[in-house]
Amino acid sequence: MGKTGHRRGTDRVREQARALADGGVDLFILETFRDLNEIGAAIDAVRRVSESSIVAQMTTEEDGNTLDGRRPSDSHRILERRGATLIGINCAVGPARCSRRSSGWRR
After folding, report:
1. Within 10 A of 83 (CB to CB), how many other CB atoms are there?
2. Is the CB of residue 82 less than 8 Å from the CB of residue 40?
């Protein structure tokens, strides 16, 4: 999880997810992740404490792919297998590029 490290980052997400679940939330939103491994670890952390719905949103680079070079359709399948309920993108590169280049998110 970036400079934090995978284990520590996962522990922090799990701690926050547990507090939110204990507080009664029924939806988790994980957004603006640029790395598929990081958002996958965050999904895993949430799933360890809750079966509530998870919205998982990746952000793309100028070419429409994730930072690690994955196409949106590949990322979608991976996030779905990891346990995301809803999958989408948000626009780090701006809404015009997001809609034009990332149409692979649609089924």
Report:
1. 14
2. yes
